[in-house]
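Risk register update: the risk of archive-format incompatibility is retired. Evidence:
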Amino acid sequence: MNILFIGIGKMGLPMATHLKNAGHELKVIDINPQQISLAEQHGLTAGNDKDFTWAEWIITSMPNDAAFLDIAKQISKKSSKNTIYIDTSTISISASSQAALWLKENHIEYLRVAVSGNNHMATAAQLTVLTSGKKEIYDQAHGLLSCWGPKVIYLGLHEQARLMKLVVNLMIAQTSAMLAEGLTLGRLGNLDWQDMWEVITSSAVGSPIMKAKMAQLGKPLGERDFSPTFTVEQMIKDLSLINQAAQEFGSPIAQTEMTLDWMKQAIQDGDGQLDYAAIIRVLERKAQLSI
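Archived output:
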């Protein structure tokens, strides 16, 4: 298959590399020359605007609504009519719906794909792949999507994949808030930091994400590692999308709104580029505990 992959950042680069390694003809585009250079070091070939008509499949990974809408409009105008478009960005439901109208007008098939997992999971091809769009297009794309992870799930005809990603990310964000409250309470009551992590990960709440966070944070207090798998600033973007969807559907999200406030406080405290679990530090500051 001829594939044009646009947007080769932290997630896009490993995803594109897996497609290349699976034997597909692949070219990549990115507005950042450094990313193109890095892609070439991974054996990928740089493309250009002419490749919009060369590609049978176009896949994008965009940072936000504006970038996604810009590239979706270009695809709707420049691509061949038999092109299939797959977008893997975390974007709003309204932006995706707008793009769907443009693409339909130009007879370009559109598959919404949301990937659950971080860049390390993308590199290891261990993402969970959520999809929505025409079932026959999903069936055609399944072989491509399975290059990114062992679990590929079809959710419906329209924007279900977008919404499901927001539901998952809401729960991830709330996990960090739950940890912040619980661990701060424990510290104030003189529970040992490492003992708390051992009990938490061995208990009924010991989910995979809890165990992943233990690997970073379950060390002695002075050795905690807040290097980002997903930054506070990135989580704020996702929480803003969640808030937008909640308003659209009339869903109460009081706890999530509080978590968003804590994330914003983390940025004010200078922790915006740390892992989103840095909201633990926000509550520790509120409780006047050492961080």
